[in-house]
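User: Please predict the structure of the protein below. I'd like the answer in structure-token form so I can feed it into my own downstream comparison script.

Assistant: Understood. Taking the following sequence of 391 residues as input:
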Amino acid sequence: METSAESGAAARGSAAEPAGASAGAPEATAAEPVAPDGVTGDGVAPDGVTEDGVAPDGVTAGSVPLEAGIPGVVTVDAGVSGVDLADTDSGVSSADLASAGAEVPAAAVLPPASLSPSRAGDFMQCPLLYRFRVIDRLPEKPSEAATRGTLVHAVLERLFDAPAAERTAPRAKSLIPGQWDRLRESRPELVELFAGDPGGERLARWLAQAEELVERWFTLEDPTRLEPAERELFVEAELDSGLRLRGIIDRVDVAPTGEVRIVDYKTGKAPRPEYADGALFQMKFYALVVWRLKRVVPRRLQLVYLGSGDVLTYDPVPADLERVERKLLALWDAIRLATETGDWRPRPTKLCGWCDHQAHCPEFGGTPPPYPLPVRAAESGVLAQGRMGPD
């Protein structure tokens, strides 16, 4: 795989050479292990727009919209930016039922029915984490870093509501207070983030950090020369295998000639080069969904890292996306097997220190909630429910 990374103002003023993806590119791997605050990325992993608004190879950031009425394509409001809609497929929270003293009936919780980039990343990181989030739906405390990422995404989306000439850094920063109020109204649990900050000092520093991230974006792209076809686009596609893939794309640019560019904003820092494949996994996932929906391979995938001022680009080819599809099918098979057997093993990493679920994790002496789904009899080489660790 070949990628190109551009830094700071240089990304605005010059066009990168075509990435020219190779058919022999290595299969996507898990992203670099980082803290959930997005030190090197705020999720899992991408514009190449130059100052004159032309992407490499003459792909102009056009205003041609995706065709209306494509199944599974929905524009999502900024107030839910970053929400993983795939989670809703798992039904009622077993944790909520258990906390209410009720027995958890198998019919109350549904097995996973779709896969998103975030949940795929969870399973690759730690199968037990996937179970806690998708099946048990254990609550997690909001974090300042993740919430700041959601806020910045909302601001960058709303900025494009203004006429091109008015898309300036001061205007973007002026949107932050209103979008923060809107975010708190839609997610009341965020009030606890700054509950211990009566003087407002921490909140002021946090908002200032959001301003810095928004301002840095203007050194990487020129929004006065961009007319996105879609923003916060929810996409869903069903593969021939029956697996449903879902996700939310930050921005889609479509050239007058039809080339599609998928752009994703990251409020963390760019990963080290050896972890670039993992960072691009999310973008290839989106490219696969768009390819299956529109039969068009996106011309460019672009990650914009606001934390470090880098832009990572990649030009996919069908062979890339076919490999990603095979990887996802294998991953889904593993998820289905774990769902049927109840065997969700923890995978200890440095990220465990940031996990909200240590009290339920065997690695920390905890016990998972009662498994709410029927368990298939263990086969040879398959551990039964409750056997979370090695023999």
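That's the full token string. Strands lie at 4-7, 54-55, 59-60, 74-75, 114-115, 230-238, 244-254, 260-266, 300-305, 310-314.
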